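Data card: per-record layout.
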Amino acid sequence: MKKILKKVWHFIWEDNSVFSWVVNIILAFILIKFLVYPGLGFLLVTSNPVVAVVSGSMEHDNQFDDWWRAKEKFYTNFSIKKTDFETFQFNNGFNEGDLMILKGKNPNEFKIGETIVFQGSGRDPIIHRIISIKEINGKYFFSTKGDNNDKQLAYEKNISEEQVIGKAVLRIPLLGYVKIIFTETVNTLLNGA
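The structure for this 193-residue chain is written out next.
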């Protein structure tokens, strides 16, 4: 038994064959999918602790002052001033390909200006900034907007607390491309087969 374990150990950690690499990739996927991801979800109290940003809806192309001049009218309609926005986390937005770490959803703790991930009308979750919150009969409803969008989309005007997956607490630039590329590759293989 000891000899077999030594051979397996050598194959996984020291062998440089293509087959060993394939096995390592499969093992990494299994560990991340079934141990790391659920463990993070448990610690952060959310079913999706990590999301990759897949659109440019939260990007700021210019300096903050230039961006604010272009968007000010919309935000002032929601009583959000420039000085308010400057205190928001991720006040300079974030980019496609960034990886966002989420924390659990306790809707009565969410604040205007925080960035939440919610299940919209499509399959993929959406990550946008809260611009208004209302409580009706003990239930919370949120209105969001992508920083780079000119207006609100219809499905983000009345988001129920049940649709919320979590709020963004940490941004890791560009690391989301790993998840995006992997997901697109798997989808292409599955749909092409």
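Known properties of this structure: The chain has two domains: 2-44, 50-178. The beta strands are 50-52, 99-103, 115-119, 125-136, 139-145, 159-160, 164-172.

See the next section for split statistics.
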